[in-house]
Amino acid sequence: xxxxxxxxxxxxxxxxxxxxxxxxxxxxxxxxxxxxxxxxxxxxxxxxxxxxxxxxxxxxxxxxxxxxxxxxxxxxxxxxxxxxxxxxxxxxxxxxxxxxxxxxxxxxxxxxxxxxxxxxxxxxxxxxxxxxxxxxxxxxxxxxxxxxxxxxxxxxxxxxxxxxxxxxxxxxx
Length: 173
Prior knowledge:
Strands 2-3-5-4 form a four-stranded antiparallel β-sheet. Helix 1 (7-28) packs antiparallel against helix 5. With 173 residues, the protein is an alpha+beta fold. The chain has six helices and six strands; from the N terminus they run βααββαααβββα. It starts with a strand and ends with a helix. Strand 2 (46-53) and strand 3 (56-63) form a beta hairpin.
């Protein structure tokens, strides 16, 4: 069948993807010279994949930037009192700090980010409409450059499945 996103779902995806793309541009994807030095193509790539499960639509979002600096995130979390020294936190616990209100690893505020509201706003918006957002970490030897993706699970209330062109036309009208 064909997945049709309802208006509320489309508004949600527009807002969330806008935030995630801004985050990729300001935090993830490096400048062309830095990418070339790392053996990457000068232009960054953002990849969005969709997977359908019976009651959910799972959107996976990633960029090919430098990934998460878990050491910097942990240090910032300690400075801000979000985590405690001497405790054992998983890498996923540390990575999830990027969703906390006021958290930012940017030293300067730019037009795009550094205010500590971007990903917190995304997480809050997701929670408000019943959408789950998570970080999935990929394997890395370097804790300062951990590739990751966001996984967003949309409930059936935000989309429907059409099995035929007639159903698509009926849903559109």
